[in-house]
Design goal:
By secondary structure, the chain is an alpha+beta fold. The chain contains 9 helices and 9 strands.
Length: 303
């Protein structure tokens, strides 16, 4: 079932009224405010009338309710199948989420149904037991504010062992890899998890020991034409970045994105996916790289 009336505006508005009545703070004024906010315009008359007349025996004249518990929306089979598909993703499984409630539910789709043409094929091995162990140990350290001793191999095959404070885990869609952002008293490190050979949980760190990340950041300025939900898609695509948006006209926007300069190429590839609806205004370095990429595509006969 793709749609059920219990997810419609009428049910949603009435459930809010009942929840407020259960809390004991429903008034006639609040009733009209809730209906006006959650239902259609004509509902501003029909819903209060049905409640006052007793047609719906849900709320009494003194704004109380015989219902003891707040209403909740049940999860549909379609939603369960969608959740099952998400939780079956090996990247999501790394977070060790309990999915016992979905046992016996058929996934809506499987990961092998997708072909990716815009990312590298040497992504992390998410089902490797050692990788899983390291990932979860890092996750524990981040959540519980512990230091880590990590040993990793650089891209030049040098071995390093460093004591760090883990800040966060990032996922690169282009590389299909997770990486750890961490700091110590001297540097900020970005380490691919696949390069970490061992990881040890250490003592908790004190607040004064946690240093601010020192990453080379840049500002990408875009001019966007909002056609075919371009604005919404750009906001979703770059949701993880700090950003600012300015409306220039009815469908024109200026968007400023703050990004790690080390991710410049990946950011540019994502911008290219929006075609002519997005124009790069600055920095000049990315504009030059953009021109080079377009010229290479033209030389291959792609235009």
């Amino acid at each position: 079932m793709l749609f059920s009336e219990i997810y419609g505006s009428y049910y949603n508005a009435v459930s809010k009224l009942i929840a407020s009545a259960v809390d004991g703070d429903l008034t006639k004024e609040k009733m009209y405010e809730i209906v006006d906010k959650y239902a259609f315009a004509e509902s501003g008359v029909s819903i209060p009338t049905a409640i006052k007349s007793g047609e719906w025996n849900l709320i009494t004249e003194d704004m109380k309710t015989p219902i003891k518990n707040k209403p909740s929306m049940p999860i549909t089979l379609l939603e369960k199948r969608w959740l099952k598909s998400l939780l079956d993703d090996p990247r999501v499984k790394l977070f060790d989420i309990n999915a016992d409630a979905l046992i016996g539910i058929e996934p809506l789709y499987s990961s092998d149904m997708f072909d990716y043409y815009d990312r590298f094929a040497d992504g992390d091995d998410y089902e490797n037991p050692e990788y899983i162990k390291i990932f979860r140990l890092i996750l524990t350290a981040i959540r519980k504010k512990h230091k880590l001793l990590i040993r990793f191999t650089s891209h030049k095959d040098f071995q390093y062992s460093i004591k760090v404070i883990p800040h966060r885990l990032e996922y690169s869609e282009k590389d299909d890899k997770f990486r750890l952002i961490c700091v110590n008293s001297h540097h900020t490190y970005t380490v691919n998890l696949s390069r970490i050979t061992s990881c040890k949980l250490l003592e908790k760190y004190k607040p004064f020991e946690d240093k601010k990340e020192r990453c080379a950041t840049g500002k990408l300025v875009l001019e966007l034409t909002d056609e075919k939900n371009a604005l919404e898609r750009v906001m979703h695509e770059f949701s993880y970045l700090k950003k600012g948006t300015e409306r220039l006209s009815d469908n024109k926007y200026r968007i400023i994105l703050e990004y790690d300069k080390g991710d410049g190429t990946e950011i540019l590839i994502r911008v290219l996916s929006f075609g002519t609806r997005v124009k790069v205004i600055s920095p000049q370095s990315l504009i030059n790289e953009l021109k080079n990429r377009i010229n290479k595509q033209k030389s291959c006969g792609l235009f």
